Structures are given as C-alpha cells and as structure tokens.
Amino acid sequence: MEVFKIRGGKTLSGSVKASGSKNAALPLFAATLLSSEESILENVPDLSDVRFMAEILRELGSEVEKLDRTTWKINPTNIVHAAPYELVRKMRASVCLLGPLVGRLRRAEIPMPGGCVIGNRPIDLHIRAMERLGAKVELKGGVVHIDDKDLRGNSIFMGGRHGSTVTGTANAIMAAVLAPGKTTIDSAACEPELSDLCAMLVSMGADISGIGSHMIEIEGVESLQGCRHRVIPDRIETATYVLAAAITKGKVTIRDGRTDHLGAFLNVMSECGVMVESDGSENLSVEVSEFGLKSFEAITLPYPGFPTDLQAQTCALACQADGLSILTERVYPSRFMHVPELLRMGAEISLEGASSIIRGGRPLTGAPVMASDLRASAALILAGLAAEGDTWVQRIYHLDRGYDAFEKKLQGLGADVERLPESEIPKAFLSQPG
Ligand code: EPZ
C-alpha cells in the first residue's frame, strides 16, 4: 500500500485544472448501455472507480476501450442483465446499472450494494422507482432481481428520509427514457451530475424536460443512438482545491472551475473570509481576505444545499478559522470518520449528534493518520498542508477512487507532498497506539 507524506507550511500558488466529474462519469458509463450503438466519453477523470466501472461493463458484455488518459469508447451491442457480485459489491455507484439494464433488457440482477464507512446506503427509493415503472422486484441471496417485461411510464415520487436520492433519480431516468408512455419524477435530485446525464441522454435521442429541476418529465422512445459526450468538471474536486488554497492562505486559479455548480459552498466560503471570483468563463480565482479565516456554520443538504461530499474537507479548514465553527450532516449523519484523525493532529473538535463543533485558530501538528474513505482522505491531506511538520496519510487507495492525480496537482501548486511506499513511514510513528 502507498502513503502520502506531506510537509506542511507551504503557501499554495499558481493554477490547477479540474478533471471531469467522478459522480457524473459513473452514471454516464452506465447510461451507454441504453443504446446498442457505440458511445465515446471525453474528459473522463483517471480514477480507480472509473476503471472499475469499465470492468463491470466488460463483464456485462460491452467492449470498453480507453482511447487516451481521459477518453473512453464503449460498445454495448451485446449485453447480459446480471452484474458480477465480486465487482459490484465493492462500489456503491454500480447501483446505477439498475436503470439502464431495466430500460434496455427489461430485467436486471444486481447485488445489493454493501454499506460503507460514511453510513447506511439503502436502495429502497431505487426499488420504488422500478416498481412504479411496472417491475416485479425480488431480493434473493443479497441480489436484487428485477423483471420488468411490462415496463411502462408512470408517476414516481423520489423523496426519502434524507431528501432526494442522486443515483436513485439517475436510475429512474435511465429506466424511463425507454419506457412506453409518459413518466414524471417528482422530488427528483437536481445535482449537476444528473443534468449532465440528462444532456447525454437527450443527445442519444431521449425526450426529457425539466432538466435540473425537482420535476422531471420523460416521454419514452423506442431506442437510443450512440453519442459522443464530454463529462462536466468535478465540482467536489474544484471545491477541494479552493479549500487547499484557503487553508494555506495561498492564491490559486482553478481552470474549468464552475462557480454555477458551487452555490451554497461559496456562501460558506464567503462567511469564512475566502474570496472566490469567477473570470466569467470557467476559471476561478481563490484567496483569503486580509482579515484571515473566520468561523462559520454549514449544514449539508441535497443540491443546491451545501454538499455532504465537502463536509470533511471543510472541517479541516474550520480548524484554521478563528472561533467556533459548526458543521451539521443532514445527508449521512455519521460521516465523521475524519474527526478522530484530525484530533491526532491537535484539532479541537467535539461531536454533538449529527454536528461537529470545531474550535479553530490553533496550529495543527503533523502526525501519522489513517484515511477511511474518499472525502476523509482529502480532509487529512488538507490538514497536512497547514500543519507544522510532517503528516503521513495511510490507505490513500481511498483517495485514488475520486481524485485524479491529486499529489501531482498539489505539487504543481507548490505543496511539499510525496506518494511513497508504506515502508517509508518512520518506525517511531508506527509504534504509536491506534
Ligand atoms: C451520491 O451517492 C454520490 N455518489 C455521493 O458521493 C454523495 O455523497 C451522495 O450522492 C449525496 O450527495 C455518486 O453520485 C456516485 P443518495 P448516492 O442516494 O446517490 C438516502 C462521494 O464521496 N437514501 O443521494 O448513493 C441515503 O441513505 C460519494 O463522491 C435512501 O434513504 O446517495 C442518504 O442519506 C459518497 N434510500 C441520502 O438518501 C435510497 O434508496 C442520499 O443518498 C437511496 C438513498
């Protein structure tokens, strides 16, 4: 396994380019199955989750070829309806295969996605959507069996206990575009990644209106053509670089950074004293106000609310902001695996139910820390950038799932970060408890 060694205290400067969005690319790969024709996806991030999804599509019978670092060709002429358990159980996003398989083949067999450290990942809303479209759904031996030979359009309500579901909405859309008749999806999630999915489906011949709203209307069509589609930039990666600039009090430009995808996050940054300006095209500039970083409050909500995928990284920034900050999780109430590791770096954080309360403004000190999931890994790296001394982040395979060339991009901004074999960790660190 590999680790990141970060020597803190460098002020970041310069320019970095946002890669394509992981959370757009994964459903887009799945959506190519809705046509029997070849599709090309461009601006795909170079991530282990993407390579994993490509492998699953191959197992389903697609020919999948990586044409260059960010371009993939998928030819799903002959596919089967059963996804391989060994691959699917390792990545929650593979649940996105449900909709396309039901839409194209009228049947699907998908292992139930496992839980993960950020919390329970149910799919009851996905199942409800398929049943509303005429499917018979059975759970046998941990596998969801869907038979939907009578697929037809219908009204679907996608709201759940924690608001809308992103991949649940994606599945409902992908099944409905080939369902005879009209489908309305009420309380649909409206994350930018879903708008990107709808844009690609329309380019394939789908009939979708209300894109980007909480009410989607679809007229089913007979079949869809192949397409060439460019993945939108990754808003979570973009915001992570905003936070990297802010936590080191640097001045950074982010190319392909879409301010229109960052709404509530920018409000929180402004409250904290982080100035983010757009140059009118797709470039952001970031710097901290002369008054420094100030405490703030944020509550995670479905889009356009503050993204849960930025909660851990923003907690790292709060450690450097004078005063008491409060971060409340309304999407995954137990998404606080980064907190114990930040405490090892001298952070002052207490957990009260679904909220973390951070007393910021005190220096962090480098330490050996353990990544637990994708966004917690990024939070620990951000903390390491600001900490005094060396921070060793272990299990960075979590990071490689969702951040494209993270250490190279940070090095390009002047960070002192290295990707090393685990054996390089100083023995003294390894004898520490925990
Ligand atoms: C997507 O996951 C993202 N993943 C997640 O990003 C992100 O955290 C999440 O949306 C919320 O924004 C991808 O897009 C691949 P949900 P998804 O279904 O769709 C509840 C990352 O770090 N729920 O929107 O699986 C669920 O418990 C990842 O990039 C139900 O109750 O999330 C949660 O509280 C992590 N029943 C809330 O909805 C369901 O059937 C949101 O979950 C489905 C979900």
Provide a count of the helices: 15
Task: Please report the total strand number as a whole number.
Answer: 23
Sheet with most strands: 4 strands, mixed
Ligands in the structure? ligand EPZ
Mean pLDDT: 95
Under the CATH scheme, the architecture of the largest domain is Alpha-beta prism
Number of domains: 2
Uncertain segments: none
What fraction, in percent, of the residue positions are helical? 25-40%
Within the largest sheet, what's the order of strands? 21-22-1-23
Name of the CATH class of the largest domain: Alpha Beta
Note the gap between the termini: 18 Å
Kindly report the CATH topology of the largest domain.
UDP-n-acetylglucosamine1-carboxyvinyl-transferase, Chain
Structural class: alpha+beta
Name its key features:
single chain; 434 residues; alpha+beta; UDP-n-acetylglucosamine1-carboxyvinyl-transferase, Chain; 2 domains; four-stranded mixed beta sheet; 23 strands; binds ligand EPZ
Question: Mind explaining what this structure looks like?
Answer:
The structure is a single chain. With 434 residues, this protein is an alpha+beta fold. The chain has two domains: 2-19 and 233-430, Alpha-beta prism (UDP-n-acetylglucosamine1-carboxyvinyl-transferase, Chain), CATH 3.65.10; 22-230, Enolpyruvate transferase domain (UDP-n-acetylglucosamine1-carboxyvinyl-transferase, Chain, Alpha-beta prism). Helix content is 30%, strand content 26%. The chain contains 15 helices and 23 strands. It has helices spanning 22-31, 48-59, 85-88, 98-105, 124-132, 166-176, 192-203, 235-247, 263-272, 311-318, 338-343, 374-386, 397-400, 406-412, 427-430; strands at residues 2-7, 13-17, 39-42, 63-68, 71-75, 107-111, 136-140, 143-147, 155-157, 182-186, 207-209, 215-219, 228-230, 251-255, 274-278, 283-288, 297-300, 323-329, 349-352, 355-360, 368-370, 390-394, 416-421. Strand 9 (155-157), helix 6 and strand 10 form a beta-alpha-beta unit. The chain is globular, with a radius of gyration of 22 Å. The site of ligand EPZ has 27 residues, from helix 1, helix 5, helix 6 and helix 12.
